[in-house]
Amino acid sequence: MKLRKVSAASAAVLALALAATACGGDDKDSGSSGGDSKKVTIGIKFDQPGLGQKTPDGYAGFDVDVATYVAKKLGYTEDQIEWKESKSADRETMLQRGDVDFIAATYSITPERSEKVDFAGPYLLAHQDVLLRADDDKIKSPEDLNNAKLCSVTGSTSAQNIKDKLAPKAQLQPYPTYSACLPGLQNGAIDALTTDDSILAGYASQAQFKGKFKLGGFKLTNENYGIGVKKGSDLKNKINDALEAMVADGAWDKAVKDNFGPANYKNEPAPKIGDIKS
Amino acid sequence: MSSILYDAQGPRAKRRNVIFTVVFVVVLAALLWWVFSTLDEKGQLEWALWKPFFTGTEAWSTYIWPGLQNTLKAAVLAVVIALPLGAALGIARLSDHRWVRVPAAVVVEFFRSIPVLVLMIFGLALFAEYTNVSSDDRPLYAVVTGLVLYNASVLAEIVRSGILALPKGQAEGAMAIGLRKGQVMRLILLPQAVTAMLPAIVSQLVVILKDTALGGAILTFPELLASANTMSGYYGANVIASYTVVAVIYIALNFALTSFASWLERRLRRGKKSTGAVLSADDVETADAGAVGKL
Amino acid sequence: MFDFLQDYDLAGAVWTTVQLAVLSAVGSLIWGTLLAAMRVGPVPLMRGFGTAYVNIVRNIPLTVIILFASLGLNQTLGVTLGGGNDFETINFRLAVLGLILYTSSFVCEALRSGINTVPVGQAEAARALGLSFGQVLRLVVLPQAFRSSVVPLANVLIALIKNTTVAAAIGVAETALLMKEMIENEAQLLLISAVIALVFVVLTLPTGLILGWVGKKVAVKR
Question: What sequence ranges are listed for the domain ABC transmembrane type-1 (chain C) (predicted)?
Answer without folding.
Answer: 14-211
